[in-house]
Amino acid sequence: xxxxxxxxxxxxxxxxxxxxxxxxxxxxxxxxxxxxxxxxxxxxxxxxxxxxxxxxxxxxxxxxxxxxxxxxxxxxxxxxxxxxxxxxxxxxxxxxxxxxxxxxxxxxxxxxxxxxxxxxxxxxxxxxxxxxxxxxxxxxxxxxxxxxxxxxxxxxxxxxxxxxxxxxxxxxxxxxxxxxxxxxxxxxxxxxxxxxxxxxxxxxxxxxxxxxxxxxxxxxxxxxxxxxxxxxxxxxxxxxxxxx
Length: 244
Hints:
single chain, alpha+beta, 5-stranded antiparallel β-sheet, elongated
């Protein structure tokens, strides 16, 4: 056994003693909490519940849960069970496009925007796209549900923002058309029952938006600074030539 003198014993205790644990500071606490918060926000965004995406926003957004989303729309977007209700708004001017992704309904439904429309009874128009330039503000589109060959059931039209007739899901990838800023799922409301089946797969549209880019105009102060800089450069070049 080695000879442990008091000095060596103290050295040994110092070497093998476990380090003291300092209490968690506020900074360390925030560093621990922030990644967890980011994970939660990412999960919410991936679930299609972001109220702002790609220059578009859902004004007055609230979460809606549903069941029964299937058929052709589900083959494009996957099965959905949550979305947002509210009014779809362009945050700025730009170009918007609406792409038809399918329906799970027997009615002759129609999507209308800017004097253009997409209608599909036999499921043959998947991929049809409408595009237009828009200004900032609520988007003036609508969804119409009508029973084919019926003289007794009037067509029903629901405008952007109608609660119960549409939901918005953000940032969804699709099978054949890439990722959209928002997917709109329409629901045939009433009259029997008043809210329909509430599955939001009766006519599904993908939305993409490209904001307009306006070149910035320099402020007067910026022009003045640029002028001073050019004058200084010219003066230095002149001195250099005279010295040479």
